[in-house]
Design brief:
With 495 residues, the protein is an alpha+beta fold. It is built from 16 helices and 17 strands.
């Protein structure tokens, strides 16, 4: 068949796509899952390896307890049932980047079963959709090494630094129905693993990767079509592109009377096309059997309770609290819960000020601006602590300093000198507002006398002149006049 996909929208509309995702998350443990080798990205090739990683004869694996804990953490976050007594299995296949000739994984008894992740997305018509993507299971396994081609057509180099890195693999049910939904799910997974501190979620570094399982069927049909797996995707955008490409390709094949093969394909981000790699293996091909060198894993009630107690707040719980308890809009809350650091900074700031809306405005304004300009920093690295920024906000709330002065003049000085007292800086620079009504009344009278012609126009209906009067009073006061008091005085005198 031709590679040019020319199928019409009318024909595409007869079909629906069914998607299942396999998401691999590298766990941020200090060492590998079965060896004491460093779990570190970016090291010189083949330096984070040992005889255990390379499976030398006589070596034995030892399970990293922290990897189990992180997997359980993810299971709790997704509402899964935690398998309290589980084992590891050997998954047998030969690849050059697999030094053992098998992979230690979990087959019959994955550590987490069921559950789901709520997602929000807009469908192709622009309609907002809320849905829970169901998870079939989450299992623990070790990563393989990395094949490096460096542009060579025939030569392959091997870097085993990644071999043995602890992974969780999240397998969804075949319940995803669009590229938009797949993108929303991956976005939610990335946010979640970062919130619970088990994975950095950097797809460009491979610490979060996704395999895509796609089939098509006529709308209304109940049977699933033949599944095709797509690998080699390092971004959410590429996953969404691969969904669209495979949908069109498979529909065209069905329409042309061709047979879709159960195969593994590779996605080319440059062309946006997929190409065949190999026929897809079946479960029997892997010849799973229980790993004889590892004892079963038992998660006691005490250990389970400890993991639950140490769970950080989840994005959906923060979203509910920010909207219902603090009265923030869904739009503001979505941005505030984008990262754990931003969410916790905002909540602490809100408690310090007692005004959560004002706290949100400052976090979404000056704080986010600073972080965007300093992309290497997170909210917990913002120069001012929530308590220090709260002092600035209180100056504004008490009308001692105007919001514009606080954000444009006072804050930049404090960011460079975080130990300085905000009130003292404002006093030294004559930025404190004058709220003395009797003193300001004299200035108001002077301005109205000098602008008598404008006053007549105002009284004839040109109410827009009020801004001119306020500006002149503030100007005459050298910027110290409290605009609120000035407005009150002008309203009284102008009737």
């Amino acid at each position: 068949m031709t590679e040019t996909l020319t199928i019409s929208p009318e024909v595409l509309a007869k079909y629906e796509i069914v998607i299942g995702l396999e998401v691999h998350c590298q766990l941020q443990t200090q060492t590998k899952i079965f060896a004491a080798d460093a779990n570190q990205f970016g090291s010189k090739p083949n330096t984070n390896i040992s005889v255990i990683t390379l499976a030398h004869p006589g070596t034995l694996p030892k399970l990293n307890k922290k990897a189990v804990e992180y997997a359980v953490r993810m299971g709790i976050a997704c509402g899964c049932e935690i398998t309290r007594h589980t084992i590891f299995d050997r998954k047998n296949y030969f690849y050059p980047d697999l030094p053992k000739g098998y992979q230690l994984s979990q087959d019959k008894k994955p550590i987490c079963v069921g559950g789901g992740i709520p997602v929000m997305f807009k469908d192709k018509s622009g309609k907002s959709v809320e849905k829970t993507v169901l998870i079939h299971h989450i299992h623990l396994e070790e990563d393989a090494g990395k094949s490096v081609h460096d542009g060579a057509l025939t030569d392959t180099l091997l870097d085993y630094n990644r071999a043995g890195t602890p992974l969780i693999e999240m397998v969804t049910d075949p319940c995803i129905g669009s590229a938009e939904e797949a993108g929303a799910f991956l976005t939610a997974v990335r946010q979640l693993v970062r919130f619970i501190d088990i994975c950095d979620g950097n797809m460009e570094e491979g610490s979060l990767r996704c395999d895509l399982n796609v089939s098509v069927r006529l709308k209304g049909a109940s049977d699933l079509g033949t599944k095709v797996e797509v690998k080699n995707m390092n971004s959410i955008r590429n996953v969404m592109k691969a969904v669209e490409t495979e949908f069109r390709r498979q529909v065209e094949m069905v329409e042309n009377g061709e047979v879709i093969l159960q195969e593994t394909r590779m996605f080319d981000p440059e062309t946006g096309e997929t190409s065949g790699m190999r026929m897809k293996e079946t479960m029997n091909d892997y010849r799973y059997f229980p790993e004889p060198d590892l004892t079963p894993v038992f998660i006691s009630d005490e250990w389970m309770a400890k993991i639950q107690d140490e769970m950080p707040p989840l994005p959906r719980h923060l979203f509910e609290r920010f909207t219902t308890k603090y009265g923030l809009s869904a739009g503001h809350t979505t941005t505030l819960t984008d990262t754990k650091e931003i969410a916790l900074y905002f909540e602490t700031l809100g408690k310090q000020t007692g005004n959560y809306q004002a706290a949100a405005n400052w976090v979404l304004g000056p704080v986010k601006t600073y972080l965007n300009e300093n992309s290497d920093k997170t909210a917990d690295q913002f120069p001012l602590s929530p308590a220090q920024l709260a002092e600035v906000i209180k100056l504004v709330e008490s009308n001692q300093v105007s919001h514009s002065t606080a954000s444009q003049k006072l804050l930049p000085i404090l960011l460079e000198n975080p130990t300085q007292n905000p009130l003292e800086v404002a006093q030294q620079n004559n930025w404190l507002q004058n709220s003395d009504a009797s003193a300001l009344e004299e200035i108001v009278d002077e301005v109205l006398t000098a602008m008598a012609d404008k006053v007549k126009e105002f009284k004839k209906g040109k109410k827009g002149l009020m801004g001119l009067f306020v500006g002149e009073v503030i100007k005459k006061s050298k910027g110290s006049a409290d605009p609120k008091v000035v407005n009150q005085l002008l309203a009284k005198k102008l009737g």
